[in-house]
Design a protein that fits this description.
The complex is a heterodimer of chains A (768) and B (139). Chain A has 768 residues and is mainly alpha-helical. In chain A, the strands form two sheets. In chain A, strands 1-2 form a two-stranded antiparallel ribbon. In chain A, helix 26 packs parallel to helix 32. The longest helix of chain A has 48 residues. Chain B has four helices and five strands. In chain B, helix 3 packs antiparallel against helix 4. Chain B is globular, with a radius of gyration of 14 Å. In chain B, 41% of the residues are buried. Classes of the chains: A mainly alpha (768), B alpha+beta (139). At the A-B interface, helix 16 and helix 17 of A face helix 3 and helix 4 of B. Chain B: Keywords: Cytoplasm, Endoplasmic reticulum, ER-Golgi transport, Golgi apparatus, Transport. Chain B: Belongs to the TRAPP small subunits family. Sedlin subfamily.
């Protein structure tokens, strides 16, 4: 720098200022608090200040030496005079008024001016140059202006509201002072304790000694503990600081911040920022974070796995404990991976921590995944409060609902699950009949014409078809076997009801995918109702089982052989096509269903579909027993699928037996294929309920045709083989049903767990 | 209310142990240590059936005149031992279960933290807070 010639007044003024800034008395002033405050108080634009700093060489050196400081002051004067900043202007401009450092408070101004005036007659030009100590009206220590200054800065920090600031806070203030400076740009800058010269300085320097520690902070790194006072205010400063620091600190994330560049940058940013939320992330910060995220995970919607994040954040050289805490705060959904938002929050916290700000106990709202970069920091105060309350036993916001650890599911967090894509509310999805089916059941129940159900039937979802197919197959089988058994009408009603209730149960208990609420109560009564009826069914079934089995035994010889061997391929061919939703059913249902349909007149089905359920009762007795049996078996199978009623399994097995028997009893050769196809389609479309009626027709047709089917000699062998095959198929069906039931059980358990979770959340935890 | 909560690792060393009245800390440490035998006994007695949360909860391990000890073991053989004061009106079993569930969930969260090495002592603040909330009640 060129030689600087200062007038006497300037010399004195500058030296005073330098002494003021040079709290460490090291003859060089780091770019910290005082200097910054000073320059800010100069009320110069940030760019100008930057320029000044550059010109004076402070940026080069990283600190203000005495000469640099003087040059800077001179440049400030030059700038304030409106002259362009030039290195040469230092000496060329003559008669430059002393640099003025804005004063905000009158009292301070007056104080200073008076002090100044009293101090230096030859400094008459000061005219209240030196800004009075931070005049936040903190007249408390009115006696000592410096105290006021310091307390001001401290108070300033304190949300700039509470006037009273304990002096002890002042020391740590200074470092924060300038940091937080931007927080209150309106009045802050001026208040910077640009203490007056001379007499005030010594007290300042004394008072500032404490803050020297804080100043040193600037040179580098971890925040001194005193900052904890500021933790609460840290809200205000951090933003600005963070904003400013961020680019610098981020760049040398692994290194200590450079002082000068950081400070200047910080200053500028701070001055320009007016964030109320200290934890808010600026756009540039966010952009930086996003870029860093991309380096790890190119997909912005994807996750960063925990291990990668660990490596990344370990580079920041923060202690593992702190990193662990940061992780806890930022991993919102506790899934061990970071989304973009979570990553930004974590990064922001790391930056904050590196810059010396204590980590909050709770994740600040602005860093919460859904709130990042939101401007609605309405409750800034709250936030700052939150951040500062280290003592508060804050539960992590994303409190993982107590799901079974074994279930790898994250239950919906209170109200924050919405934004987090990782959290998926486990909504049980029914594989089994859905509402449509239920509607159909209801319709059938009410006895309304089946035209209504028909339409939903036509639209029947594949999953319904599964069940229906099973049911139908079972029904048919059992119906066939029951051939000859005159079952009472109670059977009819029971199976229907059971089936209805069962399906309803299924659909309800499974909870439609749309609503996450527990199944509505209404179905329950039906369940109970069905149960009672099912009990009957159980009894009847046990009875019929024996009968059926007897029938099975008896039938083969009596009933014309099922053209299974010939038909099997056919049905199988058809069935697989049918099974939209059916998977495992294909093996069984093809055999079973086609069996019955073989002799079923599908045209009848359509008719029956249209007809009401009552037709079942009106049908021939033969049909009834068959249908009923079929229904019974189907009901149990359906119910099995839904309700975790082990008892039904027996029924099912019983049904399967009759089913097998029924197969044997349904001998159909001729009609099979075309009819089967039709039946298939119908089966797929129809819900169980309607199948009942339809089956009735089919069975009726079957029965009608049965007598006409001759019984071959080799029928026995064939029958046995057929029955074996049927048994196998039934086994498969049962296995399938079992798996479905297990699935449903699991779903219901999940529901239960979610309900329990909700209950726990609602219930206060104090139980003692 | 719980007076002592401990998290024991699979190898039976403590990952986290905390007691409320400081003066009895040693006593509770000893209690927890001795309860590990009971835990092992119960675990071995239990069949290796499909893991069900009921099996995770071991129930009352043993009562003394002053307090009762409850146990809970996870699928990875991490044990939670809770000592409750008998003077408190008997805690319902469900409450104990819910407390263990909360413990388990918090422990899971700690595990999810990539910076936590399994086998380390648990220093998580969130976990501490949760445990504090469980212990700081009544008594």
């Amino acid at each position: 720098m060129e030689g600087l010639t200062l007038s006497d007044a300037e010399q004195k003024y500058y030296s005073d200022l330098f002494s003021y800034c040079d709290i460490e008395s090291t003859k060089k002033v780091a770019s910290n608090g005082r200097v910054v405050e000073l320059f800010r108080a100069a009320q110069l634009p940030n760019e100008v200040v930057l320029q000044i700093m550059e010109l004076c060489g402070a940026t080069r050196l990283g600190y203000f030496g005495r000469s640099q400081f003087y040059i800077a002051l001179k440049l400030v004067a030059v700038a304030q005079s409106g002259l362009p900043l030039r290195v040469e202007s230092i000496n060329t401009v003559k008669d430059l008024p002393l640099p003025r450092f804005g004063a905000s408070k009158n009292e301070q101004e007056s104080r200073h001016t008076t002090s100044y005036s009293s101090d230096a007659e030859n400094q008459g030009s000061y005219s209240g140059v030196i800004p009075p100590p931070p005049g936040r009206v903190q007249v408390k220590k009115g006696s000592v202006s410096h105290d006021t200054v310091q307390s001001r800065s401290s108070t300033e920090q304190q949300e700039s509201i509470s006037p009273v600031v304990s002096p002890q806070q002042s020391p740590p203030t200074s470092p924060h002072t300038w940091r937080k400076h931007n927080r209150h740009p309106s009045g802050g800058n001026n208040e910077r304790p640009l203490a007056g010269p001379g007499p005030f300085w010594s007290p300042f320097t004394e008072a500032q000694t404490g803050s020297s520690a804080g100043d040193t902070m600037w040179s580098g790194h971890s925040p001194p503990p005193p900052q904890e006072n500021w933790v609460s205010f840290a809200d205000t400063p951090p933003t600005s600081t963070l904003l400013a620091m961020h680019p610098a600190s981020v760049q040398d994330q692994t290194t200590v911040r450079t002082v000068a560049s950081a400070t200047t940058a910080n200053e500028i940013r701070r001055q320009s920022s007016s964030y109320d939320d200290p934890w808010k992330i600026t756009d540039e910060q966010r952009q930086y974070y996003v870029n860093q995220f991309k380096t790890i995970q190119p997909d912005l919607n994807g996750f960063i796995p925990g291990s990668a994040a660990k490596e990344f954040f370990t580079k920041s050289k923060l202690p593992i404990l702190e990193l662990s805490h940061i992780w806890e705060l930022s991993d919102f959904d506790k899934d061990g991976a970071l989304t973009l938002d979570e990553f930004c929050a974590a990064f922001h916290l790391v930056v904050a921590r590196k810059n010396g700000y204590d980590l909050p106990e709770k994740l600040p709202e602005s860093l919460m995944p859904k709130l990042i970069d939101l401007e609605d920091s309405a409750d800034v105060g709250d936030q700052s409060g939150e951040v500062g309350y280290s003592g508060s036993p804050a539960e992590a916001p994303p409190s993982k609902s107590p799901s079974m650890p074994s279930l790898n599911q994250t239950w919906p967090e209170l109200n924050q699950s919405s934004e987090d894509t990782a959290i998926v509310h486990p909504v049980p999805i029914r594989m089994t009949p859905s509402k449509i089916h239920m509607q159909e059941m209801e319709l059938k129940r009410t006895g309304s014409d089946h035209t209504n159900p028909t339409s939903p039937l036509l639209v029947k979802p594949p999953d319904l078809s599964e069940e229906n197919k099973i049911n139908s197959s079972v029904k048919f089988v059992s119906g066939n076997t029951v051939d000859g058994y005159s079952s009472s009408d109670s059977f009819t009603s029971d199976p229907e009801q059971i089936g209805n209730t069962v399906t309803r149960q299924r659909s309800h208990s499974g909870t439609s995918p749309d609503n996450t609420a527990p199944p509505p109560p209404p179905p329950r009564p039906h369940q109970s109702h069905s149960r009672s009826s099912s009990l009957d069914m159980n009894r009847t079934f046990t009875v019929t089982t024996g009968q059926q089995q007897a029938g099975v035994v008896a039938h083969p010889p009596a009933v014309p052989p099922r053209p299974q061997p010939s038909q099997a391929p056919g049905p199988h061919v058809h069935r697989p096509v049918d099974a939209e939703g059916l998977i495992t059913h294909t093996s069984t249902s093809p055999q079973q269903i086609p069996e019955q349909p073989n002799f079923a007149d599908f045209s009848q089905f359509e008719v029956f579909a249209a007809s009401s359920v009552n037709e079942e009762h009106d049908d021939e007795a033969e049909k009834h027993p068959e249908v009923l049996q079929v229904e019974k078996s189907s009901e149990p199978s359906a119910s099995l699928r839904v309700a975790k009623t082990d008892g039904r399994v027996e029924e099912k097995t019983a049904a399967s037996a009759p089913a097998n028997a029924g197969k044997g009893t349904t001998p159909l050769a001729p009609p099979p294929k075309p009819i089967r196809r039709r039946l298939k389609s119908e089966d797929e479309l129809r819900p169980e309920v309607d199948e009942h009626s339809q089956k009735t027709g089919v069975l009726a047709a079957v029965l009608a045709s049965q007598p006409s089917i001759p019984r071959s000699v080799g029928k026995d062998k064939k029958a046995i083989q057929a029955s074996i095959r049927r048994n196998k198929e039934t086994n498969t069906v049962l296995a399938r049903l079992n798996s479905e039931l297990q699935q449903q059980l699991k779903d219901v358990l999940e529901e239960r767990i979610s309900l329990e979770v909700q209950l726990e959340q609602l219930r206060p935890f104090s139980h003692l | 209310m719980a007076v002592c909560i401990a998290v024991i690792a699979k190898e039976n060393y403590p990952l986290y142990i905390r007691s409320i009245p400081a003066e009895h800390e040693l006593k509770f440490h000893y209690t927890v240590h001795t309860s590990l035998d009971v835990v092992d006994e119960k675990v071995s007695a239990m069949g290796k059936a499909l893991v069900d949360q009921r099996e995770l909860y071991l129930g009352l391990l043993y009562p003394t005149e002053d307090y009762k000890v409850y146990g809970y073991v996870t699928n990875s053989k991490v044990k939670f031992v809770m000592v409750v004061d008998s003077s408190n009106t008997a805690l319902r079993d469900n409450e104990i279960r819910s407390m263990f569930r909360k413990l388990h969930n918090s422990y899971t969260d700690v595990m999810c933290n990539p910076f936590y090495n399994p086998g380390d002592r648990i220093h998580s603040r969130a976990f501490d807070n949760m445990v504090t909330s469980m212990m700081v009640q009544v008594c």
